[in-house]
């Protein structure tokens, strides 16, 4: 069973959401962010100005997003790949980022796609000048390595449920028992190579079950990014 979980993880059997320092409520533009204690991340007073120099290390454009005093997203400029962007801001103003599918404002933005030192949200350090700005490097998140210990500590409960469902379906397929699943939409085909739940009648011994016999939605998902456990003031490379 452990080998199957590892194989599924290598193939991308990961959930579409994760727990980290910051949890995004709502998909796409307009989301709000909370710290690990459940406090809303938002801009506060504008008493301590500073300067930031962003560097986009991704292969796609990145949108800079300010979190206003209500914690709402306010879209700022798009930085092209390998380009720099200089900004004057305040040390109590948080910023987050999203990769874009295109260079223009009408492109689609990808949630959970950009980090600074494994964090989604940053607060700039104070007292940086235009001549000596705070240097912030935008990168794609690294994938968290799966281990039995990390399964409980790093991966979210949604993935625990998903892994359990996949393993139960795999076991049912091997034993020839029916695989219990939620009702399918009305327009979903009722038969197909990815939806078989019983062995042929002439098979007397359970045979090997391949991942191709499992529904595709059970083995697709996003990578779990590596995130730090504490909100820090950062921006160094």
UniProtKB/TrEMBL annotation:
Family: Belongs to the VHL family.
Span of domain von Hippel-Lindau disease tumour suppressor beta: 41-101
Name of the featured protein: von Hippel-Lindau disease tumour suppressor beta domain-containing protein
Region annotated Disordered, chain positions: 177-205
Top-rank taxon, per record: Eukaryota
Native species: [Myrmecia] bisecta
């Amino acid at each position: 069973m452990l080998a199957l979980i590892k194989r599924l993880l290598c193939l991308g059997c990961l959930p579409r959401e994760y727990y980290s320092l910051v949890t995004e409520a709502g998909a796409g533009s307009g989301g709000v962010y909370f710290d690990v204690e459940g406090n809303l991340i938002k801009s506060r007073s504008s008493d301590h100005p500073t300067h930031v120099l962003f560097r986009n290390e991704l292969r796609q454009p990145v949108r800079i997003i300010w979190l206003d005093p209500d914690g709402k997203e306010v879209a700022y400029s798009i930085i092209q790949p390998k380009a720099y962007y200089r900004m004057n801001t305040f040390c109590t103003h948080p910023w987050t980022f999203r990769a874009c599918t295109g260079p223009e404002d009408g492109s689609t933005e990808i949630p959970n796609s950009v980090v600074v030192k494994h964090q989604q949200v940053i607060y700039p350090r104070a007292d940086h000048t235009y001549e000596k700005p705070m240097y912030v490097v935008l990168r794609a998140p690294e994938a968290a390595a799966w281990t039995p210990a990390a399964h409980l500590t790093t991966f979210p409960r949604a993935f625990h449920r998903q892994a359990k469902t996949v393993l139960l379906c795999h076991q049912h397929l091997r034993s020839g028992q029916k695989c219990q699943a939620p009702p399918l939409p009305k327009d979903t085909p009722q038969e197909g190579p990815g939806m078989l739940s019983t062995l042929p009648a002439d098979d007397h011994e359970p045979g090997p079950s391949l991942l191709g016999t499992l529904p595709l939605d059970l083995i697709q998902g996003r990578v779990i990014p590596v995130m730090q456990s504490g909100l820090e003031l950062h921006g160094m490379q």
